[in-house]
Structures are given as C-alpha cells and as structure tokens.
TrEMBL record:
Protein known as: PDXDC1/PDXD2 second domain-containing protein
GO MF terms, alphabetically ordered: carboxy-lyase activity; pyridoxal phosphate binding
Gene3D superfamilies listed in its UniProt record: Type I PLP-dependent aspartate aminotransferase-like (Major domain)
SUPFAM superfamilies: PLP-dependent transferases (SSF53383)
Residue ranges annotated for the PDXDC1/PDXD2 second domain, each copy included: 273-315
GO BP annotations, alphabetical order: carboxylic acid metabolic process
Similarity annotation: Belongs to the group II decarboxylase family.
Superkingdom assignment: Eukaryota
Keywords from the UniProt entry: Decarboxylase, Lyase, Pyridoxal phosphate
Cofactor: pyridoxal 5'-phosphate
Pfam family, one: PDXDC1-like_cen
InterPro entries hit by this protein: GrpII_AminoAcid_Decarb (IPR050477), PDXDC1-like_2nd (IPR055103), PyrdxlP-dep_de-COase (IPR002129), PyrdxlP-dep_Trfase (IPR015424), PyrdxlP-dep_Trfase_major (IPR015421)
Length: 345
C-alpha cells in the first residue's frame, strides 16, 4: 500500500506549477475552502488554541470578483464559520478594460479601506475564465497587489486548462505565479468520477496538516488514484489533443458566425450573442453540446458555447452542433445575419 501511494504523485498534474503540493477533492469548492483554512492558520498564530476569538480582534477579509461563481462567497463563509461581512465582492471594470475583469484599482482602494478599519486582508480569489463569459482577470497585476498587502492569491477557471499546451497566453501563464490554483481536469478532459486537484505552495507542513490539505492516512493519499490512472492512460499527447480539439471547435464556430476578436472573451470559453431562437434550437437538437442561454449584466441575453467543458466528453455531439450551426447560419438572409451578430437581442 505504501509503495503504491508513493507512486501516485502530483508531478504529472503540475501544469507548469513548479514545487507545488497537491490536494485532491470531490467538490471543486473544497480545495479553496481548505486553502482559506491554511491562510487563517498562517496569519493567526493562536487560531488553533483561541479559535474564533482571535478573528474577532482583527476581522479577516476574503475578496472575490462579482463575476465569480454564484454563491461562492456564501459557501466559504458558511463552511469557515465566518460572518458574511468577511466577504468582499470586488466589482468588475466599468470604464477601462473588459467588463468581466476585476477592477484592480478599485480592489486596491477596498483593501486600503479595510486596513484602515483594522481588518486583515486575507485572500483574493481570481478567475482565469469567468463562469459567465470566460474572461481572465489581470493576474499579473493582482499578484503584485497581493504581494504588496501580504495576501494569498488563489486562481480558478476553465482557461487554466491551456497551461498544458505548448503555447500559453501571457494572461493565463501569469497564473503559475499564484499561491494556489484549482484544476477540474475531469470536466476538461471528459473523465468521469475523477477528483479535482488544488495545487498550492506552502513551506510549513504542520499548517497544511492542520488545514486538512495533507494526511498520513493511505486511503487519503489514494484519492488521486482514479485521476492518476486516467492521465497515465491518456498520456501527455492525449491530454493536449483533447484541449486542442476544444480550440478547433472554437475557431470553427467563430469563423461560421463571424465573431470578431474584440467580441471573443477567450479561446476556450466564450460568450457570443446569437439570436435566442438559434440558441434554443441548438440546445434542443443537441442537448449534450452544452449550448445554453445566459443573462449577462452588461450584454443582456446571450448564447454561451464553452467547447472545453463539453467537447472532451461529447466529441460527436459537439461536432454535430457545429454542423447544425454552420447550416443554419448559411441559410440566413443578409439582414438576418446582421441581426444575428448584434450584441443585444
């Protein structure tokens, strides 16, 4: 048993994340939850003995983007036993840059205000692919801000999958400098019943143990076994092929519907404002394609197609979806196509 446990290591899952440790978990929010506990143990030396009393003296603050997953902040507060006042939602840009990226200047002001009020800025959750539109926050600038205020930077999002490719955009590559990241390889690669993995860097193993990120029990170490076996079977080439397949689907769809670069939110998860009728037809004809209609605060009602979240497990279905989309768009009149490309429905 011990020999098998020693072979199941996170090296093959490193995703350019050097010298990091790995924690495997079923719920994709559990990794971030344990990271929060690790940071609390690190910043509050007497937390193990005094518990919540030390938090009352200097209230911790966790910052998340307004574009983060719905209910993420409430789940973290509930599981950590913190009041909702410990969660700060950072608005996205309103004047400059993407309207789905965290406003870095405003975040700086929020942190300064919290410090002046005697609070302790604890952790920042950034996105490499927001759930709604697939945008990546300015991770480089956010990392500099976290270093300035001695905060922990955690990154999550579908665009982290591209770290496995030979070429990675600089905006996503900046995620390799963060303190921790969560990878949901099962959904990206179409692997059922495999755990998610959170990679993190921390020098004190005793605090990692206290936070629940490590365990001496062999059964806990073998939690990674299904993922390890799956990746052994796929190999590096198989992993890259599946991620590249999602890129090709994106490129084909982009060429068919005529979306310009300025309207594309990311290579592997994007929102495009097709007509509501077309989106509903595609979702009905190919349910496994992952086509869905979403409401975005700035753009209104849009059709979202995230190939990376659907293509790996449903390659035939997403291929059919592309053909249906191409056929439908080609049959439209010029005026209908113009209407199709409009941002607002």
């Amino acid at each position: 048993m011990n020999g098998l446990c020693s072979r199941v290591t996170p090296d093959r899952f490193s995703y350019r994340y050097e010298n990091g440790s790995a924690y495997y978990h079923e719920d994709d929010r559990e990794g971030l939850l344990k990271i929060c506990r690790l940071v609390i143990h690190t910043c509050y030396e007497d937390y193990t003995v005094e518990g919540f009393n030390v938090l009352c003296a200097k209230q911790p603050v966790i910052y998340i983007s307004s574009a983060a997953r719905t209910g993420l902040g409430q789940v973290l507060c509930n599981q950590l036993g913190l009041p909702l006042s410990c969660m700060c939602r950072v608005p996205c840009n309103t004047m400059f840059g993407s309207q789905h990226q965290m406003d870095v200047a405003l975040l700086d002001r929020l942190i300064k205000d919290d410090v002046e009020c005697g609070k302790l800025p604890l952790l920042l959750v950034a996105n490499a692919g927001t759930p709604g539109a697939g945008h990546t926050d300015k991770l480089g600038r956010l990392k500099e801000l976290c270093e300035q205020y001695n905060m922990w930077l955690h990154v999550e999002g579908v665009n982290l999958a591209t770290l496995a490719l030979g070429y990675v955009s600089s905006s996503v590559l900046a995620a390799t400098k963060c303190d921790s990241m969560t990878l949901t390889l099962g959904s990206w690669l179409g692997l059922p019943a495999v755990p998610a993995v959170t990679l993190y860097k921390h020098e004190d193993p005793s605090l990692s143990l206290a936070a629940g990120l490590t365990s001496s029990q062999p059964v806990e170490k073998l939690r990674a076994l299904p993922l390890w076996l799956s990746l052994q079977y796929l190999g590096h080439d198989g992993i890259v092929e599946r991620i590249k397949h999602a890129s090709q689907l994106f490129s084909c769809t982009k060429s068919v519907i005529g979306v310009g670069d300025s309207e594309v939110t990311s290579v592997h998860s994007f929102t495009c404002a097709l007509s509501l009728q077309l989106g509903e037809q595609l979702a009905q004809l190919v349910p496994a394609s992952g086509i869905d209609v979403v409401e975005l605060e700035d753009e209104g009602t849009c059709v979202r197609f995230s190939p990376l979240m659907t293509s790996a497990g449903n390659i035939p279905q997403t291929g059919i979806c592309y053909k249906i989309m191409a056929h439908t768009v080609c049959d439209l009149t010029t005026s209908a196509k113009t209407d199709l490309y409009q941002l607002y429905l």
